[in-house]
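Hi support team,

I submitted a single chain yesterday and got back a structure, but I'm not sure I'm reading the token output correctly. Could someone confirm the output below corresponds to the sequence I sent? I've pasted both exactly as they appear in my results page.

Thanks,
R.
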Amino acid sequence: MTDNIDISPIGLLTGKVVFITGASRGIGAAAARLFAREGAAVVLAARSTDTLQRIVAEVRADGGDAEAVTMDLTDQASIRAAVERVEELYGRLDGAFNNGATVQRPGPLDTTSDEDVEAQFTVNFRAHWTAMAVEAELMRRGGGGAIVNTSSIGGRRANPALPAYGAMKRALNSITESAAVTWGRQGVRVNGIAPGGTATEMMDAWEAVSPGIIERNNAATPLGRMAEPREVAEVAAWLISDRASMVTGAIVPVDGGAGA
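Hi R., thanks for writing in. Yes, this is the structure output for that exact sequence:
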């Protein structure tokens, strides 16, 4: 399956209000379009307001329900305010896709700077921690919901080229599982997805500083290619949907078999 294949929507998320971080590009933007086509009202969050508004306009032109909110993942108050805005707009939250992330400068552990480590902690770990807490609080008031966090294949094994990134993604896996156990009896499911190489701007940036990384990724992937952003978003959509009603605490690989 690729983005070139027309897959008819089936109403997987009909009637749900879903909040998406990192929604201005890549997997997040693909999720915004997909979730709306599947019937969700989507609230898109990122720093780039202009880009978000273009996606909102596209979703609305296609008959979908979308709103945008500016949010900075380095600012905990900004994250809380964005989720509060969801409540103002819709009165509830049924699903959240915590997808926003930043990548470190590629290089081995002993050349990774303190600044890189701090940035990875702030955006790829603490922001998810904060977002999950406020999302779950709103969901519990409405009777439950489902949260999906974007992890990475780099959080499942050694990641010598991106050690700080991999470390924070592994930590994210841990808090995803802990949250699932903590909030399960309150009706909140929490899962993660672990994409491998995906055709996004982030991967293009890595290729620019490490030429050949995409070719090596494809060679190490049994399906022989990178994922399209929509293919990753499809898994998040299913996990948020009621079809995944008994799935919580899972970290689902979306890597074409690269981690097998």
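A quick pointer for reading it: The chain is about 45% helix and 15% strand. Let us know if anything else looks off.

Best,
Support desk
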